[in-house]
TrEMBL record:
Keyword tags: Metal-binding, Zinc, Zinc-finger
Keyword presence, Zinc-finger: yes
PANTHER family: PHD FAMILY PROTEIN, RING FINGER AND SWIM DOMAIN-CONTAINING PROTEIN 2
Record-linked Pfam families: SWIM, zf-RING_2
Top-level taxon of origin: Eukaryota
Record domain SWIM-type: where: 100-132
Protein's recorded name: SWIM-type domain-containing protein
Domain RING-type, first and last residues per copy: 180-226
Region (Disordered): 1-43
Gene3D superfamilies on file: Zinc/RING finger domain, C3HC4 (zinc finger)
PROSITE patterns, per database record: ZF_RING_2, ZF_SWIM
UniProt GO MF annotations: ubiquitin protein ligase activity; zinc ion binding
Amino acid sequence: MKGKRKRKNDSYDDEGDAVDVSPKNRSPKKKAKKGGDETCDAVMKEKRPRRFRAYAPQSYLEIKERALSQRLTVMGRERCGTTEVPEEKVLVAGSTGNLYTVHIGKVPDCDCPYAKKGNQCKHIIYVFLRVLKAPEHVGYQLALLSSELQDLFKTSPPIPSADAEADSSDGNRKPIEGECPICYMEFEKGEAIAYCKAACGNNVHQDCMNSWITVSRGKATCPYCRSNWVREAFSGNSKELLTGTVNEEGYVNVASQLGLSGERDYSTYHQPWVRSQRGYGYRH
């Protein structure tokens, strides 16, 4: 009786990474291609720096919940990289007021303590989903291909200051619609909303604008057109701002300027992790 042929069995680990659990089959050797063909194939078959995730793992879903429910504030964006491999750096104020830099590239990273350990942190997920409007299947990847970065930045919202110059001569207020350029949340009825009276007329949440002015080292400029901002309701402490406050972790912390307590809300955290991290006084 002939033995049954074993089928290749693909499985997935707990992190959603594709894993081949079947014995490796020998493949016939292919003839070496000439130099030009090899270069072409190398471009077409770009290798992902980290394994592809076929679905969103539970670890991602837990952090995503914190990323989209906690108060995070974008303090600056900078497009960098090249045309072939576009990248972006985003300065984010975390929920405890620490300022972190998120770098979206082939291997997205953040300089917060959690990301430095090799984890995908809430700041990275926030930038992916809230700021760049990335589709979900991109948000849970740990590494991207050049083509994925190109597609991401083709459809992502532009950096506000890059598109506002054309309207800078119009002092009329724009309709209150769309998103705030600082928190990337929709404008809602009843919210305090300021606008650029000096030039472009674009709208911004009053609280977000106060935060923007505070962490911009006293340079009150419009997030869109960079014209001088007419400050009427701002009451931030510019003296504290100019000196800056670096905490024991080595991060600039702007909790007091943003009206944050500086204490973490542990209600959405996995409890064993909470107990371990509280022993180190870690702020995320």
